[in-house]
Amino acid sequence: SFDAALLRAIRCHNAYPARQNDAWVRPLPATAIQPKGADAGEHVADSLYARVCWERQQPPALIYAPTDADGRPWEAVGQKFYTLSDGRLRYRSVQQRVLTRVAINRQRGTAQDQRLYSLLAIRETTEVETEDGARRAPARFRGSIALPADASDAVIKALDQVTHLGGRQTSGLGAVRIEASSTAPPADEARQVLQRVNAMTQRFQEQARLYADLGGSPWPITGSIFTVNLLADAILLEDGWLPTQELSAEQLQALTGIEATLLRAFTTTRTVGGWHVLWQRPKPTSVAVAMGGVYVFQTDRPLSEEDCRRLARLQLDGIGERRTEGYGQVRVCDEFHLR
């Protein structure tokens, strides 16, 4: 039966391309850079600490234009999906193929001359590199759902009934199998969030001391510095109606009760829409902040475990509009910044 309260409480997070042993896969933060012309996944670095501290302290005779040992300028990696395996960064991608079909004449029930069309579909297998060479494995996506504890059985039962996704299902496309597994309760995440926040704050303090030794303005960091990373596109509104690409300090306080200052935002925008399956109508388009965006916040005092518990809850609830559809998923202090 339809449960409106349960539908409002559920948070469906995006499923990203993964391999069998991947614990998680996330969008690469917008602060990721690599030397121009470098191979994918090679020499990827994080510009977060150096960029924020340089803009804040402005060391004299030091411009922010990083190059590698060969003199190649660093550039943004762009939007990719990544995971960490044995301490190394690994990319994950969606492999697609083009299918060509012929249109059918509805009157004669036969192929129509000069009526070919092509559609882009997700490949059912993906190429995996092994010690014995490349092999094909079933395409796999890993996502998550945040839901009330007493609703897990009902949701798992509903997921078992999903056998197809996407369009052209009657022509043989879209067959899927969903495997559900449980995870730790959200309350257990508070201490882990605190550890990540403390580690990030320490990295900022070390970078600030380095720039101060180079003649930059002193920046004593007595509180905590943390990031809110977008794991999905987020539809943010200012004053409840005006599209914006900034997660302001006021919005963060309204969501978590934490008083902080927004130091820097690394974001881009895109237009998002959708399709009403039930109504067979397109959804209204909205301006959204693209996944991979990074918001950097600073507090006047160190965050407590209770503060981090609220941040852990924010990771489950998300930010912005249409969160039940997967928009607005966030993570506090993504592991990419702490490698």
Present the secondary structure layout:
Layout: H1 4-9, E1 11-12, E2 16-18, E3 26-27, E4 32-35, E5 45-46, H2 48-57, E6 74-76, E7 81-85, E8 88-92, E9 96-104, E10 111-122, E11 125-130, E12 133-138, E13 140-142, E14 145-146, H3 152-160, H4 190-213, E15 225-230, E16 236-238, E17 242-244, H5 249-256, E18 261-266, E19 269-272, E20 275-276, E21 281-282, E22 286-289, E23 294-298, H6 305-317, E24 330-332
Antiparallel strand pairs: 1-14, 2-13, 3-7, 4-5, 4-6, 7-8, 9-10, 11-12, 15-23, 15-24, 16-17, 18-23, 19-22, 20-21
Helix pairs in contact: 2-4, 4-6
Describe this structure in words.
It is a single chain. The protein is of the alpha+beta class and 339 residues long. The protein has a domain at 186-338: Immunoglobulin-like. The protein contains six helices and 24 strands. It has helices at residues 4-9, 48-57, 152-160, 190-213, 249-256, 305-317, and strands at 11-12, 16-18, 26-27, 32-35, 45-46, 74-76, 81-85, 88-92, 96-104, 111-122, 125-130, 133-138, 140-142, 145-146, 225-230, 236-238, 242-244, 261-266, 269-272, 275-276, 281-282, 286-289, 294-298, 330-332. The strands form ten sheets. The protein has a four-stranded antiparallel beta sheet. Strands 3-7-8 form a three-stranded antiparallel beta sheet, with no helix packed on it. Strands 5-4-6 form a three-stranded antiparallel beta sheet. Helix 4 (190-213) crosses helix 6 (305-317). The longest helix has 24 residues, at 190-213. It is globular and about 80 Å long. 24% of the residues are buried.
